[in-house]
Amino acid sequence: MSCITFNLAIEVFAAAIRNSELQGYTTPGTGEKLIASLFADDASMFLKADDKLSVLTKVKEDWCVVAGAKFNLSKEVIIPIGTKEYREEVIATRKTTPSGDLIPQTTNLAKDGEANQICGAWYGNETTDATPWANPLSKIDGSLENGLKCNPTIEGRRHLIQMNIGGVSQYLTQVQRMPENIEKRLVKRIRQYAWADEEKSPVALDTLQAPINEGRRGILDIEARNRAIDIMWLKEYLNFGPERPTWAYFADEIFALKAPKETLEHVDRRVRINPLLQSWKTARGVNIKIGQDLRSIIDTAQDYGLQLGGITLSKEAMREMPIWYHREADPKIRRLNNGSISECLRENHAIRTVGQAEMLAKRARNPRHRNRQTDRRQTGEDDPSEGV
C-alpha cells in the first residue's frame, strides 16, 4: 500500500511539472511533451536551454511543503545536453543560457567523462560503454570467490554462475546492453569457474551449455542470452501500437539524421520515418555516432534477416505503414516517390503514412470538397486536407 500511496502523492508533483511553463522536449512523431520521467523515488527532468531552473525549483518546493516530503539534494545532478562547446560553456558559466538562472554550487554539474546512475542505468557525455560495468564485475568476482569456499560440485557452480554472473548482469544488459569485451570476459570467467578444480576444461563450453534434458549441464550461455535481449530491443523498437516506448520515437529521428551520404542526398528528410520499414539505409558503421544501443538494433535486424511479413496485416497496421519508400513496394510504385504531386502531398498535406493518404483520398472524393490553389504555408492554416 505504501507504494500506491507514494504514487498518488508523486503524481501531484508530475502534474504540476506538466502544467508549468517549462517546455521540455517534444517527442517526434507524437507531439507529446517529454519533461518528467518518474520511477519509484527517482525523478528525471528534461529541460530545454530556455527553461528556467527557478520554475522547477518553485514547483519542487511547493510540492514538498504540501506532501511533507524532501528531495535528496546531495544526489541531484544536472547533465548538459548539446554540442561539446555548449556543454563546456554551461559548466564554465553554470548557466544554460547567458540570461538564464545560475545553477547553485550545491548542485552537481556533470562534466564530460562523468557517468551518473539513473534507475540502474548510467548516463553521461563522452563516457565509454565499459563505464557502467566496473562495479558489477567487481561484485561478480567477489561473489564467485566466496562461493568456492564451500567447495561446490559442478552443479553447485552452475547455480553460482547463474545467480551471480547471470543475475547481476541481466538488468544492466537489458537497459544498456553489454559491450563485446565485457561479454568475452564473462564467457571466459564462466568457462574457468565451471571447472574450478581442473587446469583445462575437459568438456567444451557449448556442451556444458546444452539443456539438462539432453544430458548436459545447462550452464548459462551468456552470449545467447544477450542476443535474446538484442531481439527484445528490436521487438520494442518495432512496436507501432499505443504502447510504443518513447525512446523508439527519438531513435527514429537519430536514424534519420545519422544516415549515409547516399541517403542524405537522395531521400527527403521529411519522409525518413523508419529504416526497417522503408528502403533507405541508416548508419551502421562504427564511426557513425549513433550509440552502441541503437547500432545494435540495426545490426540485429540484419544479422537475423528481419523481413516485413505475415499471413495478413491488420488494417490498423497497414495504415501505420509509411507510404514513401515503402520497403516492400513494387519498383513501379517507388517511382512515385518523386515529382510535383509527391512534393505537394508531402509539403502541403503532410502525408507520411498510408492512413494519412487514405484519409486525404476520402476527403477529396467528398462532394463538398473544393480544390484550392493556395499553399497552406502562406495562409498559416494547418488543415492537412487543404493545399495544392
TrEMBL record:
Region annotation Disordered: where it falls in the sequence: 358-388
Entry protein name: Reverse transcriptase domain-containing protein
Basic residues compositional bias, start-end: 362-371
